Amino acid sequence: MKGTPWQRGRLLAGAGGPRLLFGRMYEDWGIELTVLPEPGARVLCIASAGDTAAALHDAGHDVTAVDINPVQLAYARERLACGRTTEGSAEAMMRLGRHIAAAMVPAWRQPALRAFLSLEDPVEQARVWRAELDTPGLRRLMRVALRPSGALAVALRPSFADVVPRRFDNVLRRRIERTVATHPNARNPWLWHLLCGTEPPGTAVPTASGPALVCDDVVHTLEQAPAGSYDAVTLSNILDGPGPDFARRLRTAVRHAVRPGGVVVIRSFREPGPAGAGWASQDRSALWGIVRVIRLGGGRGPREDRRIEP
Ligand SMILES: C[S@@+](CC[C@H](N)C(=O)[O-])C[C@H]1O[C@@H](n2cnc3c(N)ncnc32)[C@H](O)[C@@H]1O
Question: Which SS3 state, helix, strand or coil, does residue 198 take?
């Protein structure tokens, strides 16, 4: 049975042991809180940097957070205990992209960027985005940097490079535009982090002592759990990378460990197919092509499952 490339704990090609990949998370836990409105749910989430685990715990849920990468899990444990954020591989790549953008496009330099990120009105935000940030210079730069044979594609491990959408430059610009046209920037820490590398002034690093933190492949955790042990699972984008065998094993494990009527949340970086983007436009992090929320039916197969739409 094929495993998952996430097991290597490395986003970039090359040899070596697992690394810290994510210093913070790029998933808007507001979606999880919206679909789990009643406190007290038994929720299993992916640990990553711990943000979603902390938010679910703060909302009164009983949280187990699992990560397959021991370095990432140790970091999440330390971060939730001490409230300290450090840079992982993802942040290093984004920092490089921002430096290049700032060198080429004046509106991407800190004072102008912070003024844009302090706006509250999505209509005005969309206007400023189109007029000042999404300039021909930025488009040229993104086209070159994100082309299929470009630096990003070469740097990433092949399983992850395969997930990056075609014409990712246009896709990413569209996802950012959709976000700024929908959600107030000033209250969007994910957008601040993506565009400017910092949080909005006064934002605290999440801390929580409640979540149980487990280093494991989440498929194994779910397989070993008693049937129906969870009311919900939120699985990040762990299917971006592995092949169909892993996806099948995950689906079976979820159906075993989540009770009938329970909720499954999963994200993907890929562009949506005919089934649509689901909650992606509600996710303020601006990055996702698909965010799916599913309520499991009582049967063994997917037939009785119901998609929850925003
Ligand atoms: C899927 S990655 C993507 C980053 C994520 N979207 C975020 O914003 O942090 C998130 C985390 O999932 C972990 N992961 C991936 N596959 C896993 C699996 N099968 N079991 C447990 N953790 C997994 C990775 O080690 C990583 O820390």
Answer: coil
